[in-house]
Amino acid sequence: MPRFAVASAVVLVACLAQTSPAAVLPHAVAQSPAVTSVSDATAMTLVAAVALALRISPKLEASQSRMAAARGRVRSLGWLANPLLDIGFSAGGTNVGSRDEDIILTQTFDVSQQRSLKRQAAIRVLAAAEADMRTTANDLVREVSLTYVDLQLADAQLEFNQEDTARTRRLKEAVDRKVEQGQAAKTAAMRAEVELLRGLQRLQQAETARIVAATRLAALLGLPMDTPLQARPDFVVGPATDASLDLRSDVLQRRPELAALTARMQAQQFEARAVGAGRWPDLVVYGRRSRIFDLAADMGVRAALQFPLLDFGSISGAQQEAEALATERQALFRAETVRVTTEIAVAEHRLRGAQRGLEAYQRGVTDRMQQLAHKAQIGYEAGAYTLFEVLDAQEAAHNVPHAQLNAKAEVVRAEAELAWALGVATPDLDTTTGGTK
């Protein structure tokens, strides 16, 4: 088992099979009015969000339809060609008014293997359709995970901005009292008013960012835009150890894009062979009866080899086309392999950088900044600190927690991106979508 823990996807793979539709979204969420604050929203886990997105995704529904079409093609080529029945009438001959009827039943057998080769190509097309559906699901898991992190970050930033605004409002009240008592100049009150306006502006920006994140997540989940959604407040950050090398060995088998290209390349190779098989004969069996209603009518069975007589270029041209398409698929596979390898390398570097950025905030610096701002405001009311010292302390208390939140969110995003790049984020679609048959 790989050691790498991805906050958004690996938890999903472990838990998604146990998520029932009733647990995905409480009935109260769908019936509630528009969200007005973080506390008014109903929390939803990432597992539930991804499960719901996979169940209602129209892209996955389209992928399932393509799979059904490919499955029908495979089934149709798994049988003999349909028999043909010819009923012929002829009039005239040595006796005026005489009439003969010929009944001919024709069955063609695939001696040239043309139909069998086409079925093998159809099986590869079906495999490609299945891989395409997993690619769609993988991309959807990634998008929901990143949007969920955005909502987590927006919730946390909104809460911090609410606390900052409340602290700045208390500072303004303290400054107003000092101005009334003649202990501070009126310019100090103006400066406190400006800081409060800045805080209110940042609070409004945080509220807007939260609405945008919740709206995007609701759209991915197929919910009304005003559905009150709230992510779980805790960022789940994986360990700092890098176990991606353990996963690289079979990444080509896990990335569905590469599996789809491989299947399509094989399908084109079988198509080229099927076109070439058109130059070989097929076995045709005829059953004949001379009259319909005459019990003494002549009957017989005849077998024949049916040879293609001439090729004016249709077979050779079609074979050349199929071979060229197979060569194209090979080139696309090589290009896709390079792209996948690059994505893995970039995701690894991004995760390492995000982990290093987060380490600086793991030593209690945020709590110290909050305590400093609180003590500075108390000291200002006691006359021990100036207004500018308090404002500097509050600015630090605002910036450091926000930077720490952004660092945590960046680590979680990087983990989700690496899980997607390594192909370990795709869930069990038979469980999450109710099957694909």
Structure description:
It is a single chain. The protein has 437 residues and is α+β, with helices and mostly antiparallel strands. The chain has a single domain, classed as Outer membrane efflux proteins (OEP) (Up-down Bundle). Helix content is 64%, strand content 9%. It is built from 14 helices and 6 strands. The strands form 2 sheets. The chain has a 4-stranded antiparallel beta sheet, with no helix packed on it. Strands 1-4 form a two-stranded parallel sheet. α4 packs across α6 (114-180), α6 (114-180) packs antiparallel against α10 (256-276) and α11 (314-359) packs antiparallel against α13 (387-422). The longest helix is centred in the middle third of the chain and has 67 residues, at 114-180. The protein is elongated, with a radius of gyration of 35 Å.
Enumerate the spans where pLDDT stays under 50 for 5 or more consecutive residues.
1-41, 95-99, 238-246, 429-437
Main-sheet strand order equals 2-3-5-6
Share in helix: 55-70%
* Mean of all residue-level pLDDT scores: 75
Assigned CATH superfamily? Outer membrane efflux proteins (OEP)
Radius of gyration: 35 Å
User: Any idea what the CATH architecture is?
Assistant: Up-down Bundle
CATH class: Mainly Alpha
The count of strands amounts to 6
The structural class is alpha+beta
Distance between the termini: 30 Å
Shape: elongated
Strand content: 5-15%
Total individual domains = 1
Main beta sheet strand tally, sense and closure:
4 strands, antiparallel
- Supply the number of helical segments: 14
The CATH topology comes to Outer membrane efflux proteins (OEP)
Order of helices and strands: HHHEHHEEHHEHHHEEHHHH
